Amino acid sequence: MKIFDAHCDVLYKLWLNPKISFRDSKQLHITLKQLVETGSKVQAFAIYVPEIVRNEDKFEVALEMVQLFYEKILEECPNMKLVKNRHEIIELKEKEIGAMLTLEGCDAIGQSLTKLKTLISLGVSSVGLTWNYSNYVADGVLESRGAGLSDFGKQVVYENNKLKISTDVSHLSERGFWDVMEIADYPIASHSNVYNICKHVRNLSDNQLLSLIENNGMIGITFVPQFLTDNAKANISDILRHTDYICSLGGVNNLGFGSDFDGIENTVIGLESFKGYDRLINSLLKYYSESQVNGFLYDNFVRHLP
To answer: Are 250 and 213 in contact, with CB atoms under 8 Å apart?
Structure first.
């Protein structure tokens, strides 16, 4: 089965240590070797600029990660191909794997639409508005103020709409979420789970999930253990609980996966790296049809892309 994974932080790890090889490093949850062996067809690579970087340096660091994407992912792995939309994914050849470039938080663009458009021209096809805290676009989920989109933030979403770029609400404050849902043409939550199952601030309420479903958005269930369960350890069965819940809300065609591999230290038991997708697929097939599982793994995200 083909796999579309909507979020990972490989670029962040490569930025921390450029000597790591994406091909087969044991320091990564996702490598080219694992993608090939496990059936990946599209992998999204996030540009995440950490909080420790000074504001004046953040755009430069984002550009460094873009350069790593081109050098370490695309140039060193010829079967990895940049894809930005549904058409380019469909055009991939049998042994080619699509590599999507995404932005996790708009801190790097400051108050500049030019910087946003520059990143998009370099290949970014999905824009997350915040990480956990505030920036000039909006507040994140851990910002106590809980503000929504600024006027500049609304300009960012309108620019995304104009350029047919997904607007990602993962990490966004609840008020910001509702502001996005009013104006975004292509809303997604690339890596968020169900709040009613696991009451973590990063998860989405029933109303938020229903809004994404009703607005033709996508929800990428993530493998972050603390977003899956309140227990000390997370299992694949916890992923199935979140899957079943979203399906019960009518989201069978709006559900995918955004692992957050290489952005997490602790992992789900049995899903310690990308090759664990095989175990997840086997578990899903016990409860869902092959067509539904194909949807969760790949078809739903591709169908919802601009």
So the answer is: yes
- What residue segments make up the domains of the chain, in order of their start? 3-304
| Each residue's pLDDT expressed in tens, for the chain with a length of 306 residues | 999 999 999 999 999 999 999 999 999 999 999 999 999 999 999 999 999 999 999 999 999 999 999 999 999 999 999 999 999 999 999 999 999 999 999 999 999 999 999 999 999 999 999 999 999 999 999 999 999 999 999 999 999 999 999 999 999 999 999 999 999 999 999 999 999 999 999 999 999 999 999 999 999 999 999 999 999 999 999 999 999 999 999 999 999 999 999 999 999 999 999 999 999 999 999 999 999 999 999 999 999 999
- Crossing angle between the packed helical segments 277-284 and 236-248, to the nearest 10 degrees: 50
Looking at domain 3-304, which of 3.40.50.300, 1.25.40.10, 3.20.20.140, 1.20.210.10 is its CATH number? 3.20.20.140
Query: Residue 260 and residue 266: Cα distance in Å, rounded?
Result: 11
Nearest to 179 by CA among 205, 214, 144, 155: 155
Q: Whose CA is closest to 171, among 299, 49, 300, 296?
A: 49
- DSSP conformational letter for 172: B
Q: Which pair of structure tokens corresponds to residue 188?
A: 């997604």
Sequence-distant (6+) residues with CB within 8 A of 56 are none
